[in-house]
Design brief:
With 557 residues, this protein is of the alpha+beta class. The chain has helices at residues 2-19, 89-106, 174-191, 273-276, 356-363, 405-408, 443-447, 521-537, 545-556; strands at residues 25-35, 38-44, 47-52, 70-77, 86-88, 111-119, 122-126, 131-135, 154-163, 168-172, 197-205, 209-213, 218-222, 243-252, 257-261, 282-291, 294-300, 303-308, 330-339, 344-348, 369-378, 381-386, 390-395, 417-426, 431-435, 456-465, 468-473, 476-481, 502-511, 516-520. The protein is rod-shaped and about 205 Å long. 22% of the residues are buried.
Length: 557
């Protein structure tokens, strides 16, 4: 009997151990009633507990639970103050979920979940009982501005890391998108061929181009391939979200980089350039870009020419092009050269204006008087500003008749207004020579106008010196040296003459450079003698020189 008693006790204990569930474990129970927003669950062993209905629902969904359902719950305590079991469906689900998730993590499997809340730096995701963190950077391949549409959707996630002890799980949605994108990408690229025309959506615009989505794969449309014309920034032509027709220019099979073009689908304006812009034709264009070496002018969209700095202005030689033209200015240009192979047009700006030296030569023939400001003074002369923005030069030797050039130039300062006479215009060399001393004419040239070498002229004696006499002719002074005063040595004395005497002299030299006349009485006497010999000596060859001279002198009288 005692034996039976012990057996019974052992069985009873065993049944208690077996049947009294351990606190902190998951147990099965049956829903016996639903009231006041709670489900009453019988977990056996005369133990009942209550669970809020919301624990049976996924975030944002209605609870799915009915009387008679069998559910697993987590037994937190066997009895509370009301004599009820303290049970939780949520904790049971969490335990269940953790087991399932750990297995998925170990097998590198995706897990299903739904985003249900927003937290700092990301979102919370319900993985069917366990809550995971989804960092903002892992939501999508590109930054997501509005995650609203993604909330509450059942979708796959990849577990990046988990720690059961701390209850941490981090998941990614992006990893899954990237994987499917890679497959999609390979498929899309496989179907593309170079030269093919496709439609795409502009996804992103940068300074150098735009990224166009061709249905799961992006291609780069470089700014230089958008249009034949110069495009400063892609947003002049494209908007994000716009659908565009593009041509596949190049596919790099290794890097999967796709280059796209838009201009390739339009007619190349260069095909018509030769016919449209013959050499030396003049056109109106718009300045698009200015550099140190010139300015680019757009003749039509896609056709640009360069006006080299040397072709910009007749007069402004060492000036930055930006001082002559400004961006977007309309200008008249002449076509100088076309290189179809290099797609280059050389243009000239100055050719559309008349050469100012030509204009000056027409309006200011030699001898014209001009007035201008002294722009510069150099060791060889003065530079004077003239109409048409050009300069003329007065050489040292053209400053004064009487002073040396080096001395005469001291009388001038930069900024002085001076008058001068045009002495020469060289259009090819772009040089204008001026003379200040020629103002009011050349007195020497006027005075000795009819006088040539060999002429006999009458002069006035103005001074007597030891070496000869000073004489004057029409206001021009000359000096007759002692040796030229007479044929006879005895008569070569300057004292023979007095101031005021009139003397006939022969001109031996007219030097317009030094502005001097070479005069000689001796030369006049010799010439007269020679003439007399010719006239009278030929008929009477025996006559003496004295006779001939006597006859000649008689004839004079």
């Amino acid at each position: 009997m005692a034996n039976t008693m012990e057996e019974f006790e052992a069985l009873l204990n065993e049944s208690f151990e077996m049947d009294t569930p351990e606190e902190g474990s998951v147990v099965k129970g049956k829903v016996i009633a639903i009231e006041a927003g709670q489900a009453i669950i019988d977990v056996g062993y005369k133990m009942e507990g209550r669970v809020d209905l919301k624990e049976f629902a996924n975030p944002g969904e209605a609870p799915e639970i009915a009387v008679g359902d069998e559910v697993e719950v987590y037994l937190r305590a066997a009895e509370n103050a009301r004599g009820e079991a303290v049970i939780s469906r949520e904790m049971a689900r969490r335990e269940e979920a953790w087991d399932r998730l750990e297995k998925a993590y170990a097998d590198d499997q995706r897990v299903e979940g739904a985003i249900f809340g927003r937290v700092k730096g990301g979102f919370t995701v319900d993985l069917g009982g366990a809550v995971a963190f989804l960092p903002g950077s892992q939501v999508d391949v590109r930054p997501v501005r509005d995650a609203g549409p993604l909330m509450g959707l059942k979708q796959p996630f990849q577990i990046l890391k988990m720690d059961r002890r701390r209850g941490n799980i981090v998941v990614s949605r992006r990893a899954i998108l990237e994987e499917s994108r890679a497959e999609q990408r390979a498929e899309v690229i496989g179907n593309l061929t170079e030269g093919q025309t496709v439609d795409g959506v502009v996804k992103n615009i940068t300074e150098y181009g735009a990224f166009v989505d061709l249905g799961g794969v992006d291609g780069l449309l470089h700014v230089t391939d958008m249009a034949w014309r110069r495009v400063n920034h892609p947003n002049e032509i494209l908007n994000i979200g716009e659908t565009v027709k593009v041509q596949v220019i190049k596919i790099n099979k290794d890097t999967h980089r796709i280059s796209l073009g838009m201009k390739q689908l339009q007619e190349d304006p260069w095909d018509l350039v030769g016919a449209k812009y013959p050499l030396e034709s003049v056109h109106t264009g718009r300045v698009t870009n200015i550099t140190d070496y010139g300015a680019f002018v757009e003749l039509e969209p896609g056709v640009e020419g360069l006006v080299h700095v040397s072709e910009m202005s007749w007069t402004k030689k060492n000036v930055h092009p930006g001082k002559i033209v400004s961006t977007s200015q309309e200008v008249e240009v002449m076509v100088l050269e076309i290189d179809g192979a290099k797609r280059r047009v050389s243009l000239g700006l100055k050719q559309t204006m008349r050469n100012p030296w030509e204009v000056f030569a027409e309006t200011h023939p030699e001898g014209t008087e001009v007035e201008g400001e002294v722009k510069n003074i150099t060791e060889f002369g003065l530079f004077i500003g003239l109409p048409g923005d050009i300069d003329g030069m007065v050489h040292l030797s053209d400053l004064s008749w009487d002073e040396r050039g080096e001395d005469a130039i001291q009388n001038y300062r930069k900024g002085d207004m001076v008058k001068a006479v045009v002495s020469e215009v060289d259009i090819d060399k772009e040089r204008i020579s001026l003379s200040i001393k020629a103002l009011g004419g050349d007195k020497f040239a006027e005075a000795v106008g009819g006088v040539k070498r060999g002429s006999v002229i009458t002069v006035n004696v103005t001074a007597i010196e030891d070496g000869g006499i000073e004489v004057e002719y029409e206001g021009m002074k000359s000096f007759i040296r002692r040796s030229d005063l007479s044929r006879d040595r005895a008569d070569q004395r300057p004292e023979r003459f007095s101031v005021g005497d009139k003397v006939d002299v022969r001109v031996t030299n007219v030097d317009s450079k030094t502005r001097r006349l070479g005069l000689s009485i001796k030369a006049r006497e010799i010439a007269e003698e020679k003439e007399a010999v010719e006239q009278y000596g030929s008929s009477d060859s025996g006559a003496s020189l004295g006779d001939i001279l006597g006859a000649a002198l008689k004839g004079d009288k």
